[in-house]
Amino acid sequence: MTPRGRRLSWTLLIALAGLYVTGEVLLAVAGGAPDDESPMVRVAFTLMTLAYLAVGGMVATRLPANPVGWLFCATGFFLGLTTVSFGYAALALDQVTSRGSETGVLAAWVTSWSWTPPLLGVPALLFLLFPDGRLLGPRWRWVVGLVAAGLACVVGATALTAGGLTNSPVPNAENPVGLLPRTLADAIVTVGFLLSLVALLLACCSLVIRVRSSRGVERQQLKWLMWSASLLPVYLATGLVRWVLDGSGGGALAELLLVLSLTVVPLAVGAAILRYRLYDIDLVINRTLVYGLLTVTLATAYLTCVLLLRVTLDPLTSGSDLAVAASTLAVAALFRPLRRRIQALVDHRFYRARYDASRTIDTFAAHLRDELDLATLSRDLRNVVRDTVHPTQVSVWLREADQ
User: Fold this and answer.
1) What is the per-residue pLDDT across 310-342, written as a single tens digit (0 to 9) for each?
2) How many angstroms separate the CA atoms of 23 and 32, rounded?
3) Number of domains comprising the chain
4) Whether residues 323 and 237 fall in one domain
5) Which residue stretches of 31-66 are H helix?
6) 107 in the same domain as 61
7) CA–CA distances in Å: residue 59 to residues 36, 48, 63, 95, 125
8) Cα of 197 vs its chain's centroid, Å
9) Rounded to an integer, what distance in angstroms lies between the CA atom of residue 185 and that of residue 156?
């Protein structure tokens, strides 16, 4: 991309970011945000949108032939469009009677469908095109067509549904272009969601095939995407457990975790495509596994200790917080030894080369204390270096002692 084109692209992206910020300001002035939505969630959502725009701009200006950058730019555009139209509609229309200017009704109409392209189109296309912007082969083109068909069904039917404008700040406002009966529109939307779901599953299969056949740099890039995408199912599983236990989705904290998990995706994709600290992903995955398992184990141990100690000590302590204090001390004492055990378990299961190298070095260190023959030590040292570092050639130089 030429310098002029690069400046033009960044100017456009800054304008899109300004569009989104304008929408947030309008939303704050109108008071149209949901009552249960915390300011922290709004800030996190803003950071997520800006992350998509920033990463999309960097990838699009440095690698303009890669459509992933433009895909992220489009995501930022639709998120900004939804926010500014939602805010303007909340400001221009009466919340009770849904009366106001025609531009306010038009903004509410845009809000009703503009959120669907980032939700239904971006994930599948990202999985199909990452990391080099090309499909696995010509036979995968029909999956792109499936994505487009599903998106067209949902957007078209939602935009043309007769009656109230759902997913807008004024759901009682009448759709100005409502041409389809609601029953027919709902059926088309259902078909569109099913097509999008099938396309997403096929895109995941494409990603798995790409991972299994990848080597070298491409494999490290795919690790970045899969690590970032794996955070979302973890969040969904946590929210499902919370919903089963107490019937709630987790409130503002759950929404904050969802937005943060979505923010990680563009950052990881940008690092992978631009190859910034590319090989650090192995360390990131390792630490994620270790501290994720450590957190779950400590939380389980803490809850178990609190329950058992309260049952045991309640007759003696008369409901005091002694059980909580004792459980906290026990969990704190378990942290370091448990972390070492989990680290060894993760290395043994997922990083066998590192585990074997560590075991080899420990064995050599123990043998080194008892061995006095230099020739034997030199041979053992060469074997250790060859088994752990895998160099093409190993030489050992020993300096003679001063006479």
Assistant:
1) 666 655 555 556 666 666 777 777 777 877 777
2) 11
3) 2
4) no
5) 39-62
6) yes
7) 36, 17, 5, 41, 16
8) 19
9) 9
